[in-house]
Structures are given as C-alpha cells and as structure tokens.
Amino acid sequence: MRRTLLFVYGSLRRGLQNAYSIRLAREAAYLGAATMRGCLYRVASYPGMQPDFHKRSIVSGDIYRLRHHSTLRWLDDYEGYVGSKPREFARELHTARMPDGCPMQVWVYVYRRCTRRVQRLSSGDYLQEMYETSRTGHGPAGTRVRGN
Fold first, then answer.
1. CA distance 46 to 127
2. Cα 49–Cα 51–Cα 53 angle in degrees, nearest 5
3. If you placed Cys at 139, which of 53, 111, 115, 143 could pair as Cys (CB 3.0 to 4.6 Å)?
4. Is 146 part of a structural domain of the chain?
5. 147: confidence class by pLDDT, cuts 50, 70, 90
6. Would you say residue 125 has pLDDT above 90?
7. Residue 114: CATH number of its domain
8. Is residue 147 in a domain?
9. What single DSSP character describes residue 13?
10. How far apart are CA 110 and CA 133, in angstroms?
11. CA atoms lying within 13 Å on the CB side of residue 102
C-alpha cells in the first residue's frame, strides 16, 4: 500500500474513547499532531471542517498513516462518503503541517454543506471545545449545553 495519510479533527482524534477512534488507532500508525488551513464548525454533536485558503484560520488535528486500504472503506462509510456522490462529507486531498512546519499530503473528510446556520468553533480545536464544554457546562461563546 502506498503511504496513505489521514488527517482527523473530530470524533476520530487520538485519545477519544469511541468505537471508531479506537479502531482507527488499532489499524493505523499515529504520526503526530498537525494543523490545516480551514474553519471548524459544530454541525451537530460532531464537527465539520471546510478548507480556507484565504484566511489564517487553522484547524487542529492528528495525522495517521493507514496500514490497509480497507480502513478507508469503513471510514468512508462512517463519514457517509460514497465515491463521487458525497453527502455531508467528501474525502479530499489537502496539505496539513506538522509542528515543525513539514507539509504532508493527507486525506481529510471535508464538510460539504452550507455553514451559515452552524456555529463556527473559533479555536479550531475540537478537543479543546469538548474539554471546555465538559469543564464549564457551556459550549463555545458561553452557550449552555443541554444536560449540564
């Protein structure tokens, strides 16, 4: 398998305890934290990212090296990406940067819908937003989170 790299920024981030992030950690090698130019949005209980090449917005995430093509197949199913007919997310090649500035061509699942009615996560870091929500009971910009 050619070196296939994946940038994750949401529910698949390293250290999250859900079935899919655990499976990804088993099937891929963690290469490290990275960033990508883009904007992060709270779509529902999960985030969506859209590339932003003109602004200085940054999305934080992790890069994995996939060991098998079958990993991309189940990830495509998980993200609702069906070949040339993307629904909510599309898998695209973009450039991510490691902390030392090294650029890497990576696959990333990009949110394809309009973002006018969804909340932008200004930190660009889903883990930070989750931590802040669990610590304070408030989401971004002081919004109250249900159930807290």
1. 11
2. 155
3. 143
4. no
5. very low
6. yes
7. 3.10.490.10
8. no
9. S
10. 24
11. 9
148 within domain boundaries: no
E-strand spans in the chain? 4-8, 28-42, 47-51, 58-66, 81-82, 85-86, 89-97, 103-111, 119-120
Return the half-sphere exposure (C-beta side, CA atoms, 13 A cut-off) of residue 15.
10
| Structure confidence at residue 98 (pLDDT) | 96
User: pLDDT tens across 71-96, in order?
Assistant: 999 999 999 887 666 689 999 999 99
pLDDT at 38: 96
pLDDT at res. 134: 67
Model confidence at 140: pLDDT above 50: no
Q: With contact defined as beta carbons under 8 Å apart, do 89 and 48 qualify?
A: yes
In a domain, 145, yes or no: no
Total domain count, the chain: 1
